[in-house]
Amino acid sequence: MIYHALTIAGSDSGGGAGIQADLKTFSALGAYGLSVLTALTAQNTQGVQAVHPVPPDFVAAQLDAVFADIRVDAVKLGMLANADIVHAVADSLARHQPAHVVLDTVMIAKGGHPLLSQDAVGAIRERLLPLASLITPNLPEAAALLDVEVATTEDMMREQGRRLMAAGAQAVLMKGGHLGGAESPDWLITPEGETRIVYPRVPTRNTHGTGCTLSAALAALRPRHVDWPATVMAARAYLQAALSAADKLQVGQGIGPVHHFHAWW
Fold first, then answer.
1. DSSP 92
2. What is the pLDDT of residues 124-152, one digit of tens each?
3. Among 64, 39, 69, which Cα is nearest to 51's?
4. Rounded to an integer, what distance in angstroms lies between the CA atom of residue 249 and that of residue 265?
5. Each residue's pLDDT tens digit, 238-256
6. Residue spans of alpha helices (H) in the chain
7. Enzyme catalytic residues
């Protein structure tokens, strides 16, 4: 069976993150990709130059069109830009109730440009956390959602993951890339337990789109696996391979993308 995965996110004109990274990931992992655009960005490997949010009613129209006609097996949420778009997406998800929803809490671009308005953080916490099957915050994003200091240890990561579950999330994948060190540890927190997933840090500067790629892989793979631990292990292995092959690409002069089609090209 070919599963259908829907990404609700912003466009990256440089092709390394956002909708473009999500659709590449879906394709690489054998899922049919659907897309709803929330924002247009003018960006390249050196940063984001401009952001143009899509009107919330048009975001809702895209969602209605997809759900009215096409089976959606999993949803990935990425850049949502502002509170009005968050509410439009939350209303649609509550109405259509897809089986699996992966929430990538995109707030800041790799180069530091904000991709989410401040008022939208509260809207995500209140409206989307209860609708998400899994959320995938990095350490600054988790701290912003909880209004606490950024975690500096794995124990703090785990505790913040538990607090996000108490706030309404069904499961949390705390991404520890900001900790530094030779390894990059993640913690999966679910009602059934806690799982540590660790990989060696790949020596490359071409890391643009890693968060988008991981969350898209989780959405593409979840319908094929029995639970989140198995899904996370498969998705993390795909991302590690994409990172390891990133230097084979020569895209731009800044922070380049990971190699989504490393197994094919």
1. H
2. 999 999 999 999 999 999 998 999 999 99
3. 39
4. 11
5. 999 999 999 999 999 999 9
6. 18-28, 56-69, 83-96, 118-123, 139-146, 154-166, 210-221, 228-244
7. 175, 207, 209-212
